[in-house]
Fold each of these.
Amino acid sequence: MSWLTDSDDEDAWSEYDETDARVRPNPKGNKPRSKLRPEHTDAIPGRVFSVDRGRYGVWVDEGGAEERQIVATRARELGRKAIVTGDYVDLVGDTTGSEGSLARIVRIQPRTTLLRRSADDTDAVERVIVANADQMLIVVAAANPEPRPRLVDRYLVAAYDAGIHPILVITKTDLADPAEFLGNFAGLDLTIVTSGSDAVPIDELIELLDGHTTVAVGHSGVGKSTLVNALVPDANRAIGRVNDVTGRGRHTSSSTISYRLGNGWIVDTPGVRSFGLGHVDPASILASFTDLAGLAEDCPRGCTHLPGTPDCAIILGVQAGELGEAGRQRLDSFQRLIATLGS
């Protein structure tokens, strides 16, 4: 039959038969797509301990009779959501852990904390470093390479933003006295551990780390991987040296991986020379200074709390002695940290 035109009589439509319509064949025989996804009720839980080019190392049945490590890939239904070291996940497929087996990660459980950084301070796109950590081990060398207070400030900002407790470890104290450097952080409630080039305070660190998930961060060459190897002898993390000309360390750890330490975990990360904070909200930092946050309730709207800010209740309260002798140091530390976001 021929197609009807505007001049055709409407009664002619009655001659149309649906069988005249041509149906395009599906040569591949593919089934129609469905938005329905399997519930994976048989999935088992695990914890990601390493990430390497699309393959994820996962501990299954931690502490149980069938504790084992398996290798997994990501399921398509996860989309682009990142899977990172420290994530608790659900797995299906071959979860035996036998050689050559491969499971699939089908779900990521809700995260308690997220340590993040951006490429630089103008980039709001965040890079997740580790999930579910509750402590940050900030490793700094007293010398060779020289300590960088501003980089430590950035680690502290990221820790406070994530709700992670920071611990400051000063290595190579036999080469230089760290007292002047530590003066930058006098107003903070920091746990501080010192270590020489050849003597690591193992017992002190294990006591601090046991029962926690601790992420270790630090500038290249400060001795972070040496510290991890001392705590976990089987880690065998690569150790580099500091360039005699530039004074900079060479990147040796190229991946983020977690190791069991007593009843806890220590997560070693690659050394970095910058730590972008483009994703951080200053209010997250203030929340970590609970004493200052109490004063801030009387601040005017939009108060930056920086020096010279008119009618800042924090500044006025500290000047009036409301927080005692430590108040000024606390305020100085807080102002330096929030100023880091704009520098």
Amino acid sequence: MKNSTAIAIGGFDGMHIGHQQLFKTLGKDGAIVVIETGYANLTPKREREHFSHYPILYLELDDIRHLSGEEFMTFLKGKFPNLKKIVVGYDFHFGKNRKYSSEDLKNIFDGEVEVIKEVAFHGDSVHSHKIRAKLQIGDIKGANAFLGHNYTLKGGVVSGQGIGKKELVATINIEAKEYLVPKEGVYATLTRIDDEEHLHPSVSFVGHRVTTDGSFAIESHILDGEVLCKDKAAISFVSFIRDNKKFNSMDELKMAIKKDISIASKELKFLQL
């Protein structure tokens, strides 16, 4: 990272299509500077590294928010002694009380500052907060379009309620506390088991099991055959199937799950897995 000549600075939660526009201008000796605000729940912690080949330096906002513009620049040059170019978004602010803008950056930095214009998809500007809003209403396809990839929850395997395999369908249950969980309901998904490269077509449920024990679950049923999941799984959301619903009997729930599986199978049939 010491040899990097260009850096992109931002929060970069989601590593969405707007962020990717910044990275495209970095060249071969680029690096990414992530300012952690504590709000990252689309790509928490080091999850951003799956969406760029550039090295990433993580900075805690609380460690740098007190710096003046000049002090911040001195800090950056200490980290990147060969720095010649800084890339930021049009709405970038930095320094104490966010008082400095990209225009101030141009005055403070003696190299090139490139400001990337607002990125829009079908006329709608792309922002992480809009992706969060889409996920919270179940607009998975809209969120994925902004992200440029399928929204994914990753987590360690946990025990389910114990009735799935016996009375309903076998599921893999995960815990993903650091992520924003989409709207409660059923989704067509792709699930990666442990460290497998292969993505399994699946149907997944997120929410409270209102028909059975009322507990919260993130669970995925694999459609191409039962698999053994030892440690972890990643569930990638493709489309929303239905809202979470309380059924009057286990038979009603079974019929709904059968229908969910049919819908998910059709939705995922033409994807290249």
